[in-house]
Amino acid sequence: MSATLIDGKAFAATIREKVAGHVRHLHGEHGLTPGLAVVLLGEDPASQVYVRNKGKQTVEAGMASFEHKLPVETSQAELLALIARLNAAPAVHGILVQLPLPAHIDAGKVLDAIDPAKDVDGFHVLNVGRLATGQKAMVPCTPLGCLMMLRGHLGDMSGAEAVVVGRSNIVGKPMAQLLLGENCTVTIAHSRTRDLGEVCRRADILVAAVGRAQMIPGDWVRPGATVIDVGINRIAAPERGEGKTRLVGDVDFDSAVGVAGAITPVPGGVGPMTIACLLANTVTACCRAND
Ligand code: GUN
Asked: Which amino acid positions bind NADP(+), per UniProt (predicted)?
């Protein structure tokens, strides 16, 4: 038997349509245009692609997109000054500083300089704390996207065993908080976890967010489990020709697809949800700012 594929592209398209509808309403009824500012330091190719896609989808949803592309040698003081200007700009409702930042910048300091009400990434320590204490927070986009797919696929998750593999601030930790909020029994596993395979096999819901290509084999997946693969890893694909590559997740899809009940593919699973949730967070920030 083969798992149901959870189609992130379709979920994301539905969210974008809803966002565009909200934006039309905000504009028509209240004269408001949600605005998203994205700040990118340097010329990392992957970051440039993300930023371009964010800008394009922001405009397609009817929102204003402000892009600030700065040289890699931009100082921390200059970056903090830009953030202060964006915090004060009424047309900007959401601010995203693309990570990773160059080594000479203290990322924590920069993220905490963003007005928490405009922190559409949900990385400000105040939003992290609000999420952890069950208060109204800006929620990081990738785990929020995973949650939406899980809700759409499973509905009620109360009492389910959820295992999150990975403990990053961007995905693993907020994902665990969101699953706790759904009344799951949550385990956070990571590279030092003893008997990782055993731990994964307990999971009704398995979220893989480690950033290591195909590290979770099918025999770590409990039969019938719902598997959310957050990994986006590029590996060599000599079968496609010399020097060719392909994208794979943190889960070994080919062996997991016959065991899981449902699984997100890579690409086309979690990936498209992140930007869709960013757009949704920007609309939320705009609405809260004008409440
Ligand atoms: N770099 C990779 N993913 C993300 C993300 O979700 N937000 C930001 N700001 N940078 C990233």
From this structure: 166-168, 232
Q: What ipTM, to 2 d.p.?
A: 0.96
Active site residue 54: yes
Domain span(s) for CATH 3.40.50.720 in the chain: 141-272
Nearest Cα to 83, choosing from 103, 49, 106, 62? 106
C-alpha distances (whole Å) from 130 to each of 9, 104, 125, 191 are: 29, 29, 8, 27
Binding residues for NADP(+): 166-168, 232
Query: Would you say 202 and 218 are in contact if contact means Cβ atoms under 8 Å apart?
Result: no
Ligand 1 atom closest to residue 141's alpha carbon, by position in its atom list:
6
Residue in the structure block whose two tokens are 């040698």: 73
Superfamily assignment of 141-272 in CATH?
A: NAD(P)-binding Rossmann-like Domain (3.40.50.720)
Protein residues whose CB sits closer than 6 Å to any atom of ligand 1:
96-99, 121, 141-142, 170, 274
Tens-digit pLDDT string for the chain (291 aa) = 699 999 999 999 999 999 999 999 999 999 999 999 999 999 999 999 999 999 999 999 999 999 999 999 999 999 999 999 999 999 999 999 999 999 999 999 999 999 999 999 999 999 999 999 999 999 999 999 999 999 999 999 999 999 999 999 999 999 999 999 999 999 999 999 999 999 999 999 999 999 999 999 999 999 999 999 999 999 999 999 999 999 999 999 999 999 999 999 999 999 999 999 999 999 999 999 998
